Amino acid sequence: MIARLSACALLLLLGACAAGLPGYVPDSGKKKSKFASPYTSGDVTSDGVYQMSEQEKLMDCKRTTGSMLITISWLRHRATDVGTSGAAVVASQAVRPVLGGSGRGLDQDAEYVRSRARLDAYNRHLVSQKCTTLDIDAELAKPPEPMGRKY
Fold it and tell me: SS3 helix, strand, coil % of the chain, rounded to 5?
């Protein structure tokens, strides 16, 4: 009885070891989509102008407009956000040197300025591609849509 249980336990242990081979990543066999990974974002210069990354410059009209609409929706709901508490900001800044990470997202006002500059840059990109642009101020003036399922 003990011998059988020992043999079963050994087989289970060997099976677990075989499943965890280091470096093995199973291939799904599916073709990788160009939308499978997120685009790298640009950065805001010291004079407040957003510089698009090379990947962002390759976006077509539909993807650029879609990204703008998502950002506008986020900015509309900004007034209803609770915000980040001072204690959370201090805790994050204290832990960042040890654990690493970014400080981006802690200052909500800086995030708003960055997002607004990105919208302006995307609109300029749409003009250069001869696409339909968005009236950002008019879109931001609209009241936020209620959150929840739309289907």
Answer: 55, 5, 40
Helix axes 108-128, 61-76, angle to 10 degrees: 150
How far is residue 72's CA from residue 69's CA, in Å, rounded to a whole number? Answer: 5
- Give 16-29 pLDDT, tens digit per residue: 655 555 555 666 66
Mean pLDDT of the region 85-112? 71
Q: Give the closest residue to 138 by CA, choosing from 151, 121, 124, 119.
A: 119
Q: Does residue 65 form part of some domain?
A: yes
Q: Is residue 31 part of a domain?
A: no
Q: What is the band of 135 on the pLDDT scale with cuts at 50, 70, 90?
A: very high
Domain interval for residue 53 = 40-80+106-143
User: What angle is formed at CA 122 by the lines to CA 45 and CA 51, rounded to 5 degrees?
Assistant: 20
Q: How many domains does the chain have?
A: 1
